Fold each of these.
Amino acid sequence: MVVKSFSESAFASALKNDYTTKVVIQEKNQFLFLYEYLSSPAIGSRTMVMEENYISKDFLDGYSTYYSYCFENYPKVCRRIHFFRNEFDAKELTKQLLKDDDPEFWEGYLGFIVVKPIPITVIGLTLLKTYSDPEDSRSFWGTRQYLIHLFGKQLKIESLAFQEQDSVIAACATTAIWSMLNKASLNFHTSLKSPSQITRDADNISPDGSRLFPNKGLSILQICQAIVNSGLVSEIKRPNIRHSKEMGQVVSGVYIRKILNAYSSLGIPIILVIKVPFGENYGAHAIAVSGFKFIKPQITAPKDEITWHSDNIEKIYAHDDQWGPFARLTFLNDGELENHWTKNDPKKRPTLVQYIIVPVFPKVRISYEDIEAIVLGLDLILRLFFTNKIVADLVWDIKILYSQDHKNGMRQYPLSEPAKINRLTLSLPKYVWVANCSVAGQKMMEFVFDATGVQNAMLGIDIICFFSRKIRLDLQSFLRTNKQMLEPLIKHKGRGNYYKFFIESL
């Protein structure tokens, strides 16, 4: 057991091994990122504890797949570095392990990094605390609780597993899938697999027809195949705007925000396939998004076009295996992002999103786009009704929820007891889409849809109104009187059923 004060030099020394020198470590992007992350005021690492001869399950699987067959006698054991916010020496740690059990001492635990005994790609399984600030608007929805055992002491940490891409057994997409499965596998239908297992699940050959190991990258089809083999299915969100003649079609910032916001409630990290500035050209890359940050919404006057709550997402946080965990990406112009790739590019060229891959549970059969098409019609109808009646804009928020989470939130609604009990005892599918309409931060209406049904069916389950009985009756009368004009605004084959459902639910 070795205890050292945290510093840039000591950290680099802790990461080196027999095949990778300290100088090489200090030049790695991951080292630069992790040192900045751990030394930041929000984390504030002061002490490191070295755990030698650590058995890492993920490395052991890769070892048995590839490294054990090498002529070089690579070790199968790793080193694990633990980080603490508090300052102490080996004597104090021994005291805490044997006699004392000071909660304040162990509250300073920040997580660990596994150091693999292989050349260059040394960063193995990494679990680090996220930035924490009670007044912050960051939401890390793709994290989970991990139990960590340190010399007989059980510790808990909220995080998401990260590791550096091993170019032999895994590509960046494989690592992104692995991070995603670390959260999704909490559902008993989903399997957590090692990077080498994920690569094998992708296909029998790589995209260019060569063997999988060493791995050179996965295609979109292979990414989806690996996700399916883990017990999930994929929704692919494709480019929707033209960026430039050189870069072609990309995914707009508005669409990225809407999709991340809509599916975040499932808690499964979402994979972005991005174009990053790399040398003279751009390179394809994959990252796993697990959080975002909202700015405070601004109250605006009514507009002709629809307004989304997701427009207030300012930044997203993703596991980028070429940099580190919870790497920040900031929205710039539509379709453009700034991240470490951009900051380190001499020309400061933006990062662009090529595809969004949303892993979902198989029972989720209705996509975000299916619900948005209905909401666009509802928005037009409500805007016509509220013309000259409201001074602030209508804002929509569409999310997919577990029905039990939807009911749990409903317990706080300002409804009568009979109305609340009727809804709490109503039988619902496991997943529901919920579209909230608010004005100046006050929720006005909530539309609930079946997320497990048939696309062309009438998916509406419930409508909850939060305004007065008079407004409700006025809206009902408005809908009945103007049916011929308003019904076609709902762009769905079953719009007649939706329109009837709207009237009868008021």
Amino acid sequence: MHSAKTVAFHTLGCKLNYSETSSISRLMEREGFEKKEFTDVADVYVINTCSVTDNADKECRQLVRRIQRKAPESLVVITGCYAQLKPGEIADIPGVDLVLGAAEKFNIVRHIRELSKNDAAKICSCDIEEVTGFHSSYSINDRTRTFLKVQDGCDYTCSFCTIPMARGKSRSASIDAVIEDARSLAASGAKEIVLTGINLGDFGKGPDGNAAAAITGRSENFYKLIQELDQVEGIERFRISSIEPNLLGNEIIEFVANSKRFMPHFHIPLQSGSNTILGAMRRRYKRELYADRVGHIKTLMPHCCIGVDVIVGFPGETDAYFQETYDFLHQLDVSYFHVFTYSERANTHALSIQPVVPVPLRNERNKILRNLSYMKMQYFEQQHSGQTRKVLFENHNKNGMMEGYTDNYIRISTPHRTEWENQVIDWKL
């Protein structure tokens, strides 16, 4: 296909996916494609998928149907985790023209050039063991905040998770490459960089999954990375998107506590407050370690915002085990939760665990924890009432309003003022 000139994107899932979509978009624009909104009619639609839950799979299928109704002659390209895990299933969706696995998503232009609309769906994929390269990616849709991918893949074997099958082995950029990206983003006007990865704290393995020392001649790890980033001029704020509790060492916590640029904000996956369930999930810590990390953070930074990932309805989660999770989170000094309802994923160990929690009960538990999360965030915000904190306001004018976040991740909404866009303002809460 040589005439295609317009392209529209839709991203499902995590911040890492957003950074990759943004990089693919820039790559296609350099090749002569004009970017359109996903609601517009375009020659090519690219959907970057997630497959963490069943909902992400369903949403992908719904999006393809919507494109079929709106623009039946347009090319539909599916990439991302769902595309790597179930390429045949996606290729069977009416309207899909091209399925790109993990190794091919950044070769998208070459594949599109060879496509015709009425051919059978083409699958370009490979075994995940063959995926070894690292592609630097970052989002610059909004100059204010950018998601910078510094790590990809995961060597963990959590019993509920398909990510290692979709993303491959843990691998990273070099520190020098990350610093170069950060300087480039500073030059483009970005004020805040959110560091993203699949298992961010495992940073330090080279593109082939081996220690980066083999390439750079020096050992690299996440602690060394943040020390170097702290010196980059022009970036006012860094955030750590999500980091496993067993990889969040005291030296990282203490560094953030003393840094001017790294914000007092952590997002730390818990998944369950029951040690029995954590064991069944094959997590690499117990709740006592998690509580210790939270306690250390709050001792050094009482104002720090702490987000939590938690899964409800995992197989074997009795009422008593769920109550353990609820009580643990209730007493823990954290600020908000991302609550996920467990959904069965093919080829995962969790499928063999009994008893299965009925779906209505899973949904009920999700609602209970979301209510607790709401109360936690209300309490966290009230604790800072009357304080003056620095807010970075975003560029968007939403119906005459603008939004921004304090250093410790409290969202602020105020009437739009152009002169405040992409500026850090002292704000009384």
Amino acid sequence: MIPTTPGAPPRTSSSQVAMSAVLADLFARPQFSIPQQEKDRLLLTELTDLVDHHRASCEPYRRITDGLGWSRDRVRSIEDLPYLPVSLFKTHELSSVPPADVFKVMTSSGTTGQAVSRVILDRGTADLQSRALSAVMARILGNQRLPMLIIDTKNVVRDRNTFSARGAGVLGMLPFGRRHFYALNDDMQLDVDGLREFLARYDGQPILLFGFTFMVWKYFLQAIRDLGITADLSGGILVHSGGWKKLAEEAVGNTEFKAALRDATGLARVHNFYGMVEQVGSVFLEGDDGFLYPPNFADVVIRDPATWEPAPDGTPGVVEVLSVLPHSYPGHIILTEDLGVVHGVGDASSGWSGKQLEILGRIPRSELRGCSDTHAFDGGRR
């Protein structure tokens, strides 16, 4: 049986999250620093408490977990905890807070006429997500705000009450930079004059670049090469995510993506990340070895699609993501529509501890979300 966190204040449905001792510890320690065995123990306690919290606060979630035969006494590991399919957030609005406490509603990407996920945030959960993203990005950016080049248009953050995943991604990264420059015009063309002025102003200084993977490739890198623009980004750090499906169709993988950027611009510090609107803040960041690593407050389970049992390391399966951040909605344990494989566990002494995840792509025949694969979709899921 998993006990409630010792000394933890009770969770409530108010707009403020009661910070448990475990959650405070996960935030206090440098991200990617906790050895996996210790992390398993900490997350098991916190996630089991969250199951009970959402069962008490969200009637549909309670009915689902009742149907699954939920019993706290039978939980021995995070693999035993009940998960929800990510598609459920497209058909049901699941909330663990009263309407008066809803601070923001986030939506996933989708094509015209396609259902999108709706994620209910109270202020406390939104604050946790913001703190979490800051803690994760500090691992590669430090605490200094850098001049920031955003490979997108200004319009992507036009609605600050209801965000698409792409807009939320851009807005979430804005605090890590200063003197923000949007590299694309409204018609998705590269702002050549603006880019030259930005690079001249910060020549010789480190800069932060952010964009969704396919947009970086199609609208930024290809434009630089096609137009013969000289752009020295050797002092830059690129953080990117999403849109790998389109690149795969062009036989471009992570290695080719990095090599092309390095050859054209000198950019060598490139970090992919994996995340989704249903678990904002809990981004898996690419380490120095090319694997994606979950931060302290998140983890991953790979499930065999035939049996739904946990798959052993090295065996591909369906990706399940776990996070202790969602308090205002039951998005703490989600079965995604992605295929992945865990290759092992990183060495804490390297600064990258945790499970080594590789995302292989979408589940065949699963519903396509498009995300940042084409700019017409106002969103980006991966």
Amino acid sequence: MLLREIKKAKHFIHFQVMLLYSDDAGFKVANALAEKAKEGVEVRVMSDSDMSSIVEGLEKIRSFGTSDFDKLKALLSEAGVKFVPSSKESYYWFRWDNIRAELKEKGVPDEFLELQDKVQKGVVLNSNVLDHRKIIIFDGEAAIVSSMNVGNKYMYEEVPGIEEHTTGKHWHDGAVLIKGPCASLLNKHFASKWMVRGGDVFDYTRHYRTKESYGSDACTVYSSFPDGKENHIRNYYLQKIKACKGRFIIENPYINDELFWKELSALDPEQAQKIVIINPYKAKGNDYLQNESSIKCNMRKPFERGVSFFAYKKRMSHWKIALDEAEQAVFYGSYNLNHRSAMHDFELNVLIESEQFCKQVKRLLEQDMADSTQITDAEEFYENPVIHPSCMLLKATEYYE
């Protein structure tokens, strides 16, 4: 889907992921972007080049077959692709006033600068903040919102010589293609970060739609950033688990948000029985080493109240999605149910209200439940987590999880 939409673009591609690997899949996508730039299409790419390099270094040790990230950036640059690293989310406080004035003189809109004012106040330690969003906009007409980065382990079909899906080297993930006005709003989110981080100023309201209407499905964009205040993505989950009228299925790889667990543990049995959680509890290849501890330390009370828990086992699931069956709505994007996403990172989810789309997602989630082991014994989880060493370690390290 990604390669197809890149090929179809005629005017511009705005491409943002946190990690852009310089492996087979990464170069396949980078080459497709480079070809469009050579055709005259405006291509802007934003990724966390620092974190991509760090992760690649770690994965070379694990023999994931990565290559030189600088070569990938050089490929894009030589083709005319504009690249901005999203590695630094804020400026030094003593430089911001001068940089802000320079950006304003350059033509960066006031609302983008005002958002960065809040970020500047909200970031305590820049090295602990990530732009975790994953959005790609094509001509302002279509957009891809995903939970996956670009690399072999997210697109395991592209890995040469690897056939078994149970090795832990491949991840279960996804993306959704959206067409219509929502793409323009997503483009504005991209533009805000792009311009503030030093990219060129462009008309982010441009779109080249081929249809007046793309249907009646509703799409709402939820975003969050590290300003230390209310997180609307988090609030959606907290409100929904307390008020959903039917089954609410959550599949998420990293569930370690203290407030989420607190609300889940406080549900009355009738409401708790509506909640279903799918998590790669003990799956191979899970990159959050304390995922198992997080579940063991927090799931006992919700389980006893009636929350269903499915341990996805085929491979690591990086999918971050929720389905509200009664409202026929899907909530999907980059957001993890952990402390990082709630407090530190830039995140973006979309709420899609669509009967047909909900049917598709329901089939996928039910397949994931079939590929899971449903936990049926409360003894799987710690009865007294407060005194358990792994729970103490979990609490001590949540700021950097």
